[in-house]
């Protein structure tokens, strides 16, 4: 079984009791991707595009990591929603 197929089987087992549709995030992969972005940024702060991460908990998670600073929001409504949720650096 390929690593991707093994991951898919693991996700299927973990969500078998839930009704579809279901969205899941592999937090190990999420954190590894964040680490890779920081490495490639070479010390420059990374502003997260909220269009790519539409989950407040994930935005909080990535912004708590060194190397990330602020959110680039997609719309004014989203900017206001993020500000009301406590995010302070919203573009």
Can you offer a commentary on this structure?
- The protein has 91 residues and is mainly α.
- It has one domain (25-91).
- It is 49% helix and 10% strand.
- The chain has four helices and two strands, in the order ααβαβα.
- It has helices at 3-15, 27-41, 56-63, 76-84; strands at 46-49, 68-72.
- The protein has a two-stranded parallel sheet with strand order 1-2.
- Helix 3 links the parallel strand 1 (46-49) and strand 2.
- The N and C termini lie far apart (44 Å).
- The relative contact order is 0.12.
- The model has no long low-confidence stretch (mean pLDDT 94).
Q: What is the helix/strand order?
A: HHEHEH
Instruction: Count helical runs.
Output: 4
Spans with pLDDT under 50 lasting ≥5 residues?
none
- What's the end-to-end separation, in Å? 44 Å
How many structural domains? 1
Q: What structural class do helix, strand and pairing data support?
A: mainly alpha
Give the total of beta strands.
2
Largest sheet: 2 strands, parallel
Query: What proportion of the residues is helical, as a percent range?
Result: 40-55%
Over the alpha carbons, how many angstroms does the gyration radius reach?
A: 16 Å
Shape: flat
Mean pLDDT across all amino acids: 94
As an assembly, this protein is: single chain
Report the portion of residues in β strands.
5-15%
Strand order of the largest sheet: 1-2
Give a brief description.
The protein is mainly alpha-helical and 91 residues long. Helices cover 49% and strands 10% of the residues.
């Amino acid at each position: 079984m390929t690593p991707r197929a093994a991951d898919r089987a693991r996700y299927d087992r973990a969500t078998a009791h839930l009704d579809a549709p279901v969205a899941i995030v592999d937090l190990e992969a999420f954190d590894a991707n964040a680490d890779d972005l920081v490495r490639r940024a070479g010390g420059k702060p990374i502003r997260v595009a909220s269009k790519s991460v539409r989950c407040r908990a994930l935005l909080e998670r990535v912004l708590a990591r060194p190397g990330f600073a602020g959110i680039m929001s997609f719309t004014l409504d989203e900017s206001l929603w993020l500000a009301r949720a406590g995010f302070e650096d919203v573009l």
